Amino acid sequence: LQADHVCYRTDSLEQYTSLVEALQCPDDDNFTLLVESEIGGRPIATFKLAEPIEIQSADSSYHHSINVVEIPSPKEGSPYEAGLEHVEFVIGGSTDCKSPINDDTHHEVLTSWMERYPEVSWNTKALRKQCNPDISTKLQIRDYGKVSIKFHLMPLEEVIEFEVGGS
Questions:
Q1: SS3 (DSSP) at 94
Q2: How many CB atoms lie within 10 A of CB 94?
Q3: Which of 9, 20, 77, 126 has the smallest set of CB atoms within 10 Å of its CB?
Q4: What percent of the chain has a predicted confidence (pLDDT) above 70?
Q5: How confident is the model over 2-56, as pLDDT tens digits?
Q6: Burial level of 109, CB count in 10 A (0-12/13-18/19+)?
Q7: In what helix (H) or strand (E) does residue 152 lie, and over which residues does it extend?
Q8: Which letter, b or e, does each residue of 126-144 get, where b requires 16 or more Cβ atoms within 10 Å of its Cβ?
Q9: Residue 32, pLDDT score
Q10: Distance of CA 28 to CAs 17, 25, 37, Å?
């Protein structure tokens, strides 16, 4: 299990624009814009961090480093509060996955993951996505509220490289 990226939602187009501009400050090399594009009718920017976000459990039993942050603008007519929206993980067993395009490998690995954790209430809506399909669940996280936890087979940075490269 590899922590892939976090998604930080903004509550307005103005906040999105201000944050994305601030992260692209020419005097600051802590953030590298990987891509900014319109997805689902709104702009989304994805940045690579020079220094990863370190996440560790209170008992130190697990530790993850995340070096990619996704920042979506809210969809028009769908207001929400700014803050942590989701965390995505790349699941094991996907070493043979060379493309983010949905195929039998994606379906088999993601289905197997759900079968491994039958007690989890899985959302499978994104299992049918053409590119980078995922499964998800929601967790209540102290100080952050309800957060989506998503699982897919390829790191977002590689999906972006695939899409930008036109493969």
A1: coil
A2: 19
A3: 77
A4: 96
A5: 889 999 999 999 999 999 999 998 887 899 999 999 988 899 999 999 999 888 7
A6: buried
A7: strand 145-152
A8: ebeeeebbbbbeeeeeeee
A9: 93
A10: 17, 5, 22
